[in-house]
Amino acid sequence: MHCFACQSAIDPDDSWCSKCGAAVRKQVDPDSERRFVTILRADVVDSTGLVAELEPEEAVSRLEPALAAMRAAVRQFGGIVSKELGDGLAAVFGAPIADDNHAPLACHAAIELVRRVGSLGDPGLQVRVGLHSGHVVAYMVSSEFSKVYEIGGAAQHLAARLESAAEANQIYVSEACQKLADGHVRFDFLGRKSLRGFSEALPVYRIVGASDLSSWRVRRARSVSRFVDRTMERALLWRAAERVPTSRQTVLLMGDAGIGKSRLAHEFVQDLRTDGWLLVDAECSPNLQGAPFSTLKRLVLSILEAVAKDCDRRGDPREDLSAVHRLAIDAVLDLPISDPRWSELEPYARGRAISEASCAIVESVVRGKSAILLIEDLHWVDRASDNVIAAIASLQTPNLFVFLTSRPNGMPEWIARCRAEVIAMRPLDDDSGLAMLTDMLGTSATNGDLKNRIISHTANVPLFIEEVCRGLKDNGTLRGQWGDLALVRPIEELGIPASIQGVIAARLDRVSRQERLVLQVAAALGPRSNEAVVQKVSELPESAFQDCLAALDRAELLVRVDSDLENSLEFRHEMVRQVTYESMVEKVRESIHARVLAAFESDGTWRDDPDSLSYHAVRAKDWPKAFSYGRSAAQKCLLRSAYADAVDYFQTAMSALDKTPMTRSREMNAIDLRMEARMAFIWSGRIAEWVELGKEADRRANEIEDVGRKVAAMTVMAGGQNFYGTPTEAVALGEEVVGLAEETGNPGWRNLALYNLGQAYFLAGRYCEAEQTFARARSHLLGMEASAPFATPPKYTLLLCCMMKSFTHTVMGQLDAAEQLQREAATIAEETGRPYDRVAAAYSGGWLKLGQNDPAAAAAILEDGFVLAQKHGIRLFVPVLACHLGIAYLEQGLLERARGMLTEAREEARAVGYTSAVLRSSIYLALVTHRLGDIRAAQNMLREARNTACQQGFSGLEAEALFGEAIVTPPSDAANKAAIFVALRAAIALASDSGALPLKHKAEAMLSAMLASGDEFT
């Protein structure tokens, strides 16, 4: 390790640095965790100039009053000073104990900080402050004599840059902090500013003052949903209200943050006001917990205001109080008191007088009229007010309804003494949650799946539902107006809005260290976990573990799930799991995942689940195991035709392997893995990545001088060229690879190389050479050398050869040979049952039926293959199947269906990078367009396709495009007739050279008809 002061190397057991003498700071990893907090940075402006010419003692004396004022302001609002910087400090709000109000508290602390320094009376002492909310790593650093709470991460640098940019006595705030504190504090937007160390200008705000809005009014102003349900809670409240005429009623509405306590309370009291009740309300503020009698002051002011507005009442209730009690109320209201009798009272007597006076005022306002005293958020009440509210709640006075709200961790101790009825609020039921979502998102059925996901994600906590929806709207995922929102792009994860991260983190901070460990293990295992595995990984004794589960179940964080198969544990909602997981620093996560991996490996039931083993190996950063399990998971996905998932696991395995030490063995595995992975990339239609696999394998094979693996890599590259390159390039590379494969004596790669070369000849329009090459490969695969490359079944390669050879014979007009090969392909597909083989057989069967002039039969076969390809994600075949299905519809005269299918085929081919499929789709889409009456568009499409085919060497497709041009060109004048003659003769020449006899015969027949009809061609 290194000294924090001079960075010299030191021994972990040393207490002092031998170079500079600084005490050694030791980080305690178990106490480190990620936190979402607000960071405050403040310093004295131009402090260097203030103390440059002063002696050290004088410099300290000059700056210390400002530093003391800064510390006091931070501590007043619950912040922690994490570091002092000589002329300033860094502080954190929301850690080590989470607080969902960390941003407003930090803003109020900053305002107070500036006020306190300004009140010192030293005009030379001016401060500037920067605030930012973000994720940090927080940890305890210990030395021989003390412990210091420190934070690390990029978030603190932005706070420091905002502080540097601020002007004297100004507070600059980041957008993240502004969003969290908006409503509690007033801001000016200063525009985007360039800050040192940040590549882009960032939005910056300036605090201009504290807001007078209460927390409820801030939440109400942001609310976009209507009040729903709460039938049971409302019934209990009304029952209590009915008993008020005969006896005082005290009700505590208890629930976690976001559950809807304030919403229900205000809905209920408004109903009472409508019935003529007098309403007195006050709210405890997190910003004023350190201010004595702050809540009571609000309550007294509310009473006076309510009485003044009540036309049935006369006079000020203070007039009926004794002189001492009037002085007590004046003291609560911070009014100047000149009467010496008040100052002569002992502190205890003053407190008793305030309590008695407050109770007397309350009793006076309920005489003859029912009144409800609503006091919200008792968990934030200041200590002095708490005693008085306890006395008021215990009054034995008819017509008085004391209505309180609190979070569970802040429930007053005196609640039981005053015989209060406690109503515990729970999340909404699913129907109410859906009603709330329908009100916000709208009634469109397209949002049905999203609504269900939000319900599951938030567990029907109203605030969480609203904030998730707001986040989706703010980031553009949902567009429109509230009540009519449309989902415009897929959602992978709903995430956790910053506004509620602190709410959840605060709940997690209420659990013990052991309970937190159980939560962390369960979070690493996923939304649902096996109880036995959690206990094994937690390494807790049975009794302690069961106590933890019981406590977590009571807190509704981790609950048992009824299951016939196993004892399962499930998070109450996904956001609790995510916050738990994200709060762990990287080393803790790695350790837990490593222990989970070891537990799985020791339990034989997990050996058939490489997906889970791979997941935990990656997160434990056990790269050899991540490679092994990732590869196994990919192979498992291939067996069940989950090709997209197989690609993901192959990429995981490749990445993990590359993180292991460089050896020849590693490089051999890396090449083999890419050769094995090629099948998943091919079938998923990820052509560009397929080619890159070959290139990367070729580079590695050259570096270790492995000729055999180089041949394999080049064969993969050659196959990719058939889709991604030009036929000329594909033929040249294919011929080279076949030669190398034969030289090295590897029959498996030679057979695949022959198939690739035959495909290249086919795309180049060299059908005779294609047929001969496919015949050679098929002969090998049917004979003694029936081998295929690594991870490729011989029957798969044989099926492809039969498929392509059948295509070739069909194009050449040799339908009997084509049909025999098609039957062979269909037999192989039936034997293997693999979806890919069945799709390939359907493709060749449809092509054959088109060659036999049976488009209806072709359509039936191709439709089955198309559905199968889409179902299993065999994207490589989707464009070609769609293209030939469109051709089948065209030949049946189903023009609109043909246009839709060919358009889809062309777009999908472009997305995949399948050049020949793009050209063929364009040619036949042009013919459909012509049949539908748009001759000009058809001509343009065909001309473009013909030019592209000519330039890139697709001579067979060039011939088809020329023939299409002859069809769509109207023989209306001499110039058009001449163009038709040129197109037909060119098509005949190309078809003749390539061996495409059916196309040649069609073109010759059309040319003969034109010549025979003279000027009248129809």
Provide a descriptive summary of the structure in words:
This is AAA family ATPase. Residues 38-163 form the Guanylate cyclase domain. Keywords: ATP-binding, Nucleotide-binding. InterPro entries: A/G_cyclase, AAA_16, Nucleotide_cyclase, P-loop_NTPase, TPR-like_helical_dom_sf. The protein has 42 helices and 19 strands. Strands 1, 2, 3, 4, 5, 6, 7, 8 and 9 form a nine-stranded mixed β-sheet that branches. Residues 1-7 and 20-30 have low confidence and may be disordered. The termini are far apart. It has 1018 residues and is an alpha/beta fold.
Topology summary:
Elements (H helix, E strand, L loop, with lengths): L25 E2 L5 E12 L2 H5 L4 H21 L3 E5 L3 E6 L8 H17 L8 E16 L4 E6 L1 H12 L5 E4 H7 L3 E9 L8 E9 L4 H8 L8 H12 L6 E6 L6 H14 L3 E6 L10 H16 L13 H10 L7 H5 L2 H19 L5 E6 L6 H11 L6 E7 L14 E4 L5 H12 L6 H11 L3 H13 L3 E4 L2 E4 L10 H11 L4 H13 L2 E3 H8 L3 H13 L3 E4 L6 E4 L2 H9 L3 H17 L7 H10 L3 H17 L3 H16 L5 H20 L3 H18 L2 H18 L2 H18 L2 H17 L3 H16 L11 H18 L3 H18 L2 H17 L3 H17 L6 H14 L3 H18 L2 H17 L3 H18 L2 H14 L5 H21 L2 H17 L5
Helix pairs in contact: 2-3, 3-5, 9-12, 10-12, 12-13, 14-16, 17-21, 18-19, 18-20, 18-21, 18-22, 19-22, 22-23, 23-24, 24-25, 25-26, 26-27, 26-28, 27-28, 28-29, 28-30, 29-30, 30-31, 30-32, 31-32, 32-33, 32-34, 33-34, 34-35, 34-36, 35-36, 36-37, 36-38, 37-38, 38-39, 38-40, 39-40, 40-41, 41-42
